[in-house]
Design brief:
about 350 residues; alpha/beta; Isopropylmalate Dehydrogenase; 2 domains; two-stranded antiparallel ribbon; 14 strands; about 40% helix; binds nicotinamide-adenine-dinucleotide; binds 3-isopropylmalic acid; binds manganese (II) ion
């Protein structure tokens, strides 16, 4: 059996609950493929602030850098909302993404037949939705120059800056075009080119790269995209967009699927891949054992596929999740009378049994 190193970062709130469920499934699926996983459990976010004073301790970063992949739950919560901005829990995630060079965030949104009835949207609108959001992850307004507070003419202000360079846009659009080749072949590039200079550069570069790649590309303004996502999610194949727009649109797309607890993500680029659900630490339900672990479990499947090159076990995990949902087992976020309500842990066990 060959061995792979996984850095696991439970984080805060529901993070430890959902990563515990996902870890068991990841271990089992990998073992079936002849891979033995060696875990390093690391602190990040609020838990790290409490233990060490900083959100991303050096030994966590070192463990992530030397791992084959990183699995993360979520960070943040009201307890740390008043800490200094440069040590906020969220800085851990931003720091990991930047330090590992993870410029591409893949957020697939699929609506299986079993779940179509659970979206707040009509089943005929959502059934068959299969979107891949490719979000730029290490640039844009998240990482531009910023100022927390300055006073000019007696008025306090704060600012952030959106910057995109040609190489940054080119590499993410190229990745989206390549991803589209294994799918329905269509890329929608989402921007705000009618207002923002950075979006005008984005649009120009996206067109040039799509032409080089021979990919069918259309452009859409982000405000229209927000509307089209709920009007006709099935019309999208691959969406490529900047850091902030991708963050917002992916939470919106989660509603198409029925719950934010379902959606996984893979952050890839230069260093080891980072895998995390798209949701946060959900302080409102933390500690109750009711969080949906599926987003984290499907993130573990993406880890198997992208970082461990283990396609068969990745697909097996995805099929096991589908089967358990099709049998009517639901965590509280997706529960309706007539179905079987299960806890986070029970959902994990059911998926293991299915595997
Ligand atoms: P959130 O995603 O944590 O929660 C939004 C809503 O979705 C809540 O009602 C929550 O209960 C629900 N929800 C989220 N995940 C769920 C799951 N797995 N199962 C069932 N319900 C779920 O977003 P928020 O409330 O805006 O943020 C809370 C904290 O999380 C903040 O500190 C924020 O910065 C942080 N955050 C972290 C990440 C991350 O670690 N990747 C992502 C987003 C937000
Ligand atoms: C996400 C989160 C993060 C982001 C935060 C916690 C930094 O919302 O992964 O979607 O904005 O990227
Ligand atoms: Mn987000």
């Amino acid at each position: 059996m060959s061995s792979k190193k996984i850095a696991i970062i439970p984080g805060d709130g529901i993070g430890p609950e959902v990563t515990a469920a996902a870890r068991e499934i990841l271990t089992l699926a990998a073992r079936k493929a002849g891979l033995d996983l060696e875990y390093a459990t690391c602190l990040a976010g609020g838990a790290a602030i409490d233990a060490t004073g900083v959100p991303l301790p050096d030994d966590t970063l070192a463990a992530a850098k030397t791992a084959d992949a990183v699995l993360l739950g979520a960070v943040g919560g009201p307890k740390w909302d008043t800490v200094a901005p440069d040590i906020r829990p969220e800085k851990a995630i931003l720091g990991l993404r930047k330090a590992l060079g993870l410029y591409a965030n893949l957020r697939p949104v699929k609506v299986s037949a079993a779940l179509a009835a659970y979206s707040p949207l009509k089943p005929e609108i959502v059934t068959g939705t299969d979107i891949l959001i490719v979000r730029e992850l290490t640039g844009g307004i998240y990482f531009g120059p910023k100022c927390e507070s300055e006073t000019a003419d007696g008025v306090e202000r704060a600012w952030d800056t959106e910057i995109y360079s040609v190489p940054e846009v080119a590499r993410i659009v190229r990745m989206a075009c390549k991803a589209a080749k294994g799918r329905r072949g269509r890329v929608t590039s989402v921007d705000k080119a009618n207002v923002l200079a950075s979006s005008r550069l984005w649009r120009r570069v996206a067109s040039a790269i799509a032409q080089e790649e021979g990919t069918e590309l259309s452009h859409m303004y982000v405000d229209n995209c927000a509307m089209q996502l709920v009007l006709g999610p099935k019309t999208f194949d691959v969406i490529v967009t900047g850091n902030l727009f991708g963050d917002i649109l992916s939470d919106e797309a989660a509603v198409v699927a029925g719950s934010i607890g379902l959606l996984p993500s893979a952050s890839i680029g230069d260093g080891p891949g980072l895998y995390e659900p798209i949701h946060g630490s959900a302080p409102d339900i933390a500690g109750q054992g009711i969080a949906n672990p599926v987003g984290t479990i499907l993130s573990a499947a993406m880890l198997l596929r992208h970082s461990l090159r283990a396609e068969a076990p990745a697909a097996a995990v995805e099929q096991a999740v589908d089967a358990v949902l099709a049998e009517g087992y639901r965590t509280a976020d997706l529960y309706r009378p007539g179905l079987t309500k299960v806890s986070t842990e029970e959902m994990g066990k059911l998926i293991i049994k299915q595997l």
